[in-house]
Every structure is written in C-alpha cells, then in structure tokens.
Amino acid sequence: MLNRSLLLYCQKSLTLEILFGCVIAFGIFLRILNLGSREFWYDEVLSLLLSTGQRSRYALPAEGAIALSQLAPLLDLPQESFAKTIQGLLRGLYAGEPHPPIFFFAQHFWLRLFGNSEIAMRSLPMLWSVGAIAAAYGLGRKLLDHRAGLLFSALIATNPFYLFHSLNVRMYTPLVFWAILSIWALLEIRAYPRLIWQVLFILSIAGGLLTFYLFAYWIVVVTTLILLLDRRHWLQHGMRLVIAGLLTLPWAVWGTLKQLQNADFDRFGVREGNPLFLHLQDLFQTIGTQLIAGDWTTSLPTGISAILGLIASSGLILSVIYLQRSSQTINLTIGLGMSIIPLLLAFCVDIVTQKYTLGFGEGRALTFVLPGFLLLMTIAIRQLKARQGIVALSLLLLYLTIDVGDLTLRSRSMFHQISETIQLESAPTLIAMDTQAWGHVNRLSYYIRPNHRVDLLAQPAAKLGTALKTVLKNSPYQRVLWLESAAPIWSPSATEQDRQNIQQVLAERFAISQTQSLQGTMNLDKFQLKLYRLIP
Question: Domain 414-534 carries which CATH code?
Fold first, then answer.
C-alpha cells in the first residue's frame, strides 16, 4: 500500500515541467563540465590569436626553424597599452579575417578578465548558449505557454549540434541567441511596443550582422514575418531595421568590403559531380547535422549525414502537415519563417552563384536556422496532448545519448600527446612539420611550453626534405620529431616520394625510436608522429 502511494505521489510530482527543467539543468551542466575536456581545434586557436590583437605579428620564416618560445606569447595579451592592442585587433581583422568584429572584441575583453586557458576562452560562448536557452523559453512561452517554453528551451539545451558549438571558441554560438531574441522581441513589440523590446530588437539585428555576414539572410526572415504578421506597422518596424543597419554602418564602410576580399570563395566553388545532386546533398547534410548528428558528422561519411537529413526532413514535413490541420497558422508561419525561408534562400543563392556555402563547415554556416527547426518540433509536440510527454522525452533522451557519447567517446588530445613525447627528455628538439597552416602551428605553440629548447621547421611536404637537410647541418638537435599532417590545408599532402626524401635526410644522423598515430574528431586532427634520436 505504501509503495503504491509513493508511486502515485511521484507520478503527480514529476510533471513534464519538472522533467524539462531537469533536462535544461543537465544540458547546462554538460557545458560547464566539458569546458576544458578537449583541446582547441584548428579554428579555435585562430580565434585566440585574433582576440589577443597580435595576428599581424604572426609570421613564420620563409626558410629555416623558429623557436616555439617566440610564437607562444602571441597567444596571450601583449605587454602594451589597451588602445594599441585594440588597434592590433582591428588590423588583424581587416588584413586577413573574413568575419565581423563583435565576437572577437567580446573574446578580447573576456581574455583580459580570465586569461587564455581553454576553460576561460570557452566560458563566454557557453554563456551565450545559456542566454539562447533562456531566450528560447521566453519565445516558446510567448507563442504557446509555460510548458512549450520549457520544451523549446530543453531542445536548445540538449541539441547535439548546438551543444558542440556552445563549447567552441567561434562566432556561431551567439548567432542562435541573436536569432531567437530578435523574433521574441518582434512578437513582444507586436503585442505592446515597449521601449525595452524595441531596443532589444535593434540590438539583436545589429549584433547578428556584426557577428556573421550570412546573418543577412535573417533580415529577410524578419522582414517576411513583419509583412505576414504585422503589416499595419511595417513603417515602424522598418525604422527599427534601419536603425540596426545604421549601427553596423561604421564597420560596413571601413571593414566589410575589405573582409569580403579576405574571404576564400574558391573553397565554395567547383566540385566533382552533378551540381543539383551536390546542392541537395548539402541541404540534407545541413539538416541532418543540425537536428541529429551534431559533431558526430565529422566522423561520418557525407552520405550518412544526408540520409539523417532526409529522415529529419520527413519528420519536419509530418509536423508541418499536422500543424496545418491543428489550426496553428501563426505559430506554423513563425516556425517555417525561422527555418525554411533562410535555408531555401541560401540553397537558391548557391545554385544561382554556382557555390556550395550551405554545406560548409558541417552546417555551421547557417547555424541560425536551428531554432526554427526546434521551434517547429516544439509546437508539433505540444499539440499531441496526451502523447506529448512520451514523444518529447524520447527526443530529449536521444539528444542526451548523442551528447554524452560525443563527449565521452571522442577525445581530442593530439597535441597533449605531442607535448608529453617531447617532455620525456630534456634535450634540444626540432619539430619538422609538413604544413605551414597557422592553426596547426599555433596549436603546437600553445600546447608545447617546455623549459628546454624546442624549435619548429614548418614547410610544405615537397620542400621539407631540402629545408630539413639545411637546418640539421651542424645543428645541436638531439631529437627530431617529424609530424605528417593528414590535412596540411595550405599545401598538398605528402606523397611517397616526399616521405622518402625526408627519411633519407633523417637517416644520415638519426635513428627512428617511436611511431604514433594521432587523431581527434576530424581530419584536421590527424597526424603521424615519428620520433628520431641522434645516433651516438
């Protein structure tokens, strides 16, 4: 009798609202727990270099080796005035970066407060994601009710794609916050145009545009929703959009045109295969990555991610059909506007321009469409009445399973392993690496901080053998650590002939003592390590 009473009490107490709240808390806990669980990946260390304001001081010698101790200080704040550092940051963005400045400015100030550790640098993107989780609750509650707000917030908190980017020192995390906040503010203004919501709307639009240039697609979304939902006040809304545009104007005049020249559009160009098929593949891969695979997509064949996208798209289509029959016209319009409009717009632009930007970066180029997809799912689940609990909890459990698997089964510690290998002995060491890509070089300088001499020779594979022979002539090195990258980025991968040339140079004075394969969660993380010791 007692057990039955306890069961009934638990069933009444564990409401969906409490369960959703627990899921939200666990999603935030996962973020905090994993701030420092992985090394910086390629783009993150570039964000750090840009945020220190020392990008313009970074340079490798055309030939010859350089001490890593000369490069490491560039990943920390310089000993100079604040104004001079800000000038350096602006010059770095202007000279070689294709992304707007707000993210890097925010990271710079965060760097000044908390330092350049992984935990410190990732804590700011994590806080952006917490802001997005909170804004999701506000938008869900505004559209439907308290439970919908909690469910939408829980989906944002546990979505594998957004969880990964919440622990990523890049500009994609705040985009979701700006997107959700702008629509929430728009709906609040539509109901009652208080000043605070007008200010938040303007700031969210300006913030998004100064965070990522493709956020311009979102302006089309907002404009469309204004015309569909509040056409009578189009002039007032238009004035707010104009004010947001004016806030971005100083950078647009001074920096945007130059940054567009910095963008490497060639990587979005010609690909082998049928163009229409490739565009459709990018479309479904983006959906599959954002809604199911998350960062696992870096370990999956493109076709698998596209198939997952087809499955997710089928679920979305069923949700749209169901909502049409449930008389959820306004909510359906908002959900479709936030997801389908920017996605199809990017798809059409790619076809017309013969580029492939939609699938770039495993779907991160259009991160801001994610909230629209999750909002559609939230609205559809909320209409299921008695079955909404089991469907919602099943989806959240799937997300949490993918999250925990990603964070526990897929480590990224390649450069720690390199550092440990070097620290085994206190001897002058040369690292010979077949790439000059600055993400690889700066990760070496960040993670290898020895108290003895470690120099770096970074050359394309075709030139490394010749450069190595010159550097080793009359050199004091007792060890040579040869790093072969699977993704050199700026130069072709090593051929068998390149490897033979390097081996011949090393064999003249050194003998191999260790071979190790290093890999993380993506191709950029794969290296072949070979340690050579001086022959007595």
Answer: 3.40.190
